[in-house]
Amino acid sequence: MINFPDGIHAKAVIFDFDGVIVDTEPLHYATFQRILEPEGLRFSWQEYIETYIGFDDRDAFAHAFATQGKMLTPDMLLSLIERKATLFCEVIGDGVTPYPGVVELIRHLHGHAFPLAICSGALRSDIDPILAMLGIGDCFDIIVTADDVAASKPDPECYRLALSRLLALYPGHFSASEAIAIEDTPAGISAALGAGLVVCAVTNSYPADRLSQATCITDSLASITQE
What pLDDT digit, counting tens, does each position of 13-30 carry? Predict the structure, then answer.
């Protein structure tokens, strides 16, 4: 059993990735700018936080082009996504920093055979190298990414898929009501709630008042306790 704020307990945990495990949002933002600036589609960091942070790459590029009334064909979109994936791998080559307590929490839960999953709007190619850098690549039973779903958060499809796969791996071990999602954005919270999950929000990307829809809120995963 793992103990969250407000007396909430869980037997399975589904982690968001960017903004929960690692602080990669500035790296994603910088990579978007390198690709979009030559197209005259630059957007500010504040716009990224307010709008783009909840999108996967597909929806982020689509939104950037749509706001400027520019055409974006399927082939163009695929090319942009591939370019961003390549650039992002270069950017993270210097290393990434996990949020306090999260690697220790993941290793502890994995060591005690907790059902663990990742549900992220990032690409699998963005996630795997970072998990390897942090030494937690083998800790997750299920990883659901933008590659696996048609719609990005706040659509609940990704969390429904992660939960169903985790339940199938651990029949009788836990119920949907005993699984908790850890999120850092309003879009992520909406997606998890839409899939019927309890949600713990961590204030890594937004202040607590922007995360009020979550079941509980914490300032750091270092404060989560285990039994």
Answer: 999 999 999 988 888 899
> Residue 15 is encoded by which pair of tokens?
């982690």
Helices (H), the chain: 25-36, 45-50, 57-67, 74-91, 102-111, 124-134, 157-169, 186-194
Q: Which of 4, 2, 16 is nearest to 181 (CA)?
A: 16
Q: Are both 74 and 142 inside the same structural domain? A: no
- Residue with the two structure tokens 């994995």: 110
Q: In degrees, to the nearest 5, what angle opens at C-alpha 132 toward C-alphas 126 and 133? A: 90
Q: Do residue 32 and residue 14 come from a single domain?
A: no
Q: Tens of pLDDT along 159-188?
A: 999 999 999 999 999 998 999 999 999 999
CA distance 18 to 130: 10
- Tell me, yes or no, whether 129 and 212 share the same domain: yes
**Are residue 113 and residue 102 in the same domain, yes or no?**
yes
d(C-alpha 57, C-alpha 108), whole Å = 32
Mean pLDDT of the 206-224 span: 94
The DSSP code for 99 is P
**Do 160 and 208 sit in the same domain of this protein?**
yes
CATH number for the domain including 51?
1.10.150.240
* pLDDT band, residue 227 (cuts 50/70/90): low
d(CA 107, CA 135): 9
**117 & 192 share domain:** yes
Q: Which domain holds residue 159?
A: 2-23+97-226
**How many structural domains does the chain have?**
2
Kindly tell me if the per-residue pLDDT of 105 is higher than 80.
yes
- What is the amino acid identity at position 3? N
